[in-house]
Amino acid sequence: MTGEEGDQRDQRDQREEPGEREERDASEEGLSERDRAVLAVERASWPGPGAKERAIRERLGMSPTRYYQLLNALLDDPRALAHDPVTVNRLRRVRASRRRRR
């Protein structure tokens, strides 16, 4: 990193809140912790109805609706594909199948 790049990064870091900086740093390097957690929940198998939704609320602290919005966006993210290709490709096939049925 050149001196100028370091100065620009320092200025940018001073303008951001700590959480914003961590999200940006994670996105520059790969998936955020939240994105990895969403994929981990989706990768798991669930014993019955309601168990997955309960886990989403307890583990991730978000509503199932928000979870599925984030998950859908992750399916189009190449970083998600690189992180967990089996899960992402499976979910892409399911999504494509549902779109064809509409």
**Distance linking N and C termini:** 50 Å
Beta strands, count: 0
- Overall 3D geometry? globular
Name the helix and strand elements from N-terminus to C-terminus, one letter apiece. Answer: HHHHHHH
Instruction: Assign the structural class, choosing from mainly alpha, mainly beta, alpha/beta, alpha+beta, or little secondary structure.
Output: mainly alpha
Rg (C-alpha, Å) = 17 Å
Question: Which percent range fits the helix content?
Answer: over 70%
Walk me through this protein's architecture:
- This protein has 102 residues and is an all-alpha fold.
- 78% of the residues lie in helices and 0% in strands.
- The protein has helices at residues 3-15, 18-29, 33-43, 51-60, 64-74, 78-83, 85-101.
- Helix 3 packs antiparallel against helix 4 and helix 3 (33-43) crosses helix 5 (64-74).
Provide the fold topology.
Blueprint: H1 3-15, H2 18-29, H3 33-43, H4 51-60, H5 64-74, H6 78-83, H7 85-101
Quick structural gist:
The radius of gyration is 17 Å and the shape is globular. It has 102 residues and is mainly α. Helix content is 78%, strand content 0%.
Top keywords for this entry?
102 residues, mainly alpha, 78% helix
